[in-house]
Amino acid sequence: xxxxxxxxxxxxxxxxxxxxxxxxxxxxxxxxxxxxxxxxxxxxxxxxxxxxxxxxxxxxxxxxxxxxxxxxxxxxxxxxxxxxxxxxxxxxxxxxxxxxxxxxxxxxxxxxxxxxxxxxxxxxxxxxxxxxxxxxxxxxxxxxxxxxxxxxxxxxxxxxxxxxxxxxxxxxxxxxxxxxxxxxxxxxxxxxxxxxxxxxxxxxxxxxxxxxxxxxxxxxxxxxxxxxxxxxxxxxxxxxxxxxxxxxxxxxxxxxxxxxx
Length: 261
Known about the structure:
Blueprint: H1 14-27, H2 40-61, H3 63-68, H4 71-84, H5 95-106, H6 117-131, E1 142-143, E2 153-155, E3 159-164, E4 185-191, E5 197-202, H7 204-215, H8 221-232, H9 237-253, E6 257-260
Antiparallel strand pairs: 1-6, 2-6, 3-4, 4-5
Helix pairs in contact: 1-2, 2-4, 5-6, 7-8, 8-9
């Protein structure tokens, strides 16, 4: 849905113009003067409350990103987001997703931004996204015990395959790569039966298998593994099939893969 942007035009009623002035000052107090009808001390309280609430939520959602950025850089980033981003939703739990949209599409390049800024932010946001994801929206008939080799495997809606150019799961204060790694970092993030979000790193072959399963609704596990063996040109396709079945069974134990009923 296209977002409608409105402006504080002179033809608007006085109370509406005052609301615009109030909101504009809160978003960017350095650029927009505080409303003349409101005591500056009181406006300062509003400014601090709004900014601190948003900053605290974002910092808690992106703890690694917050930790590796100096205070001045972090607050400049949040201030820019707070002042300029037009949110697509008023829901408070969606603020981290709005922040991610801002980094992905609106953030102007800054010298102090780490090269992995968006990928790390996305990696950290996924944990929140899966923790509040309503699986009932994508209900499907599954068999948690059936044979995945002869049956049709499917991916749980609570399991997502992620691929990054940076090893985002290893980034810390002591490890901040300047350039992407030589190989893609493939991760499966999933919510387990205890409602805990888990991450596992997988190799290229497992990532390919999970990708095929995610797109599949007709082929058996046997057919998918045979396809992977053919893609690899492996001299011993039976070894690929055997290893693939073990991978599928391990993923099923984790709640990542099911068999369609």
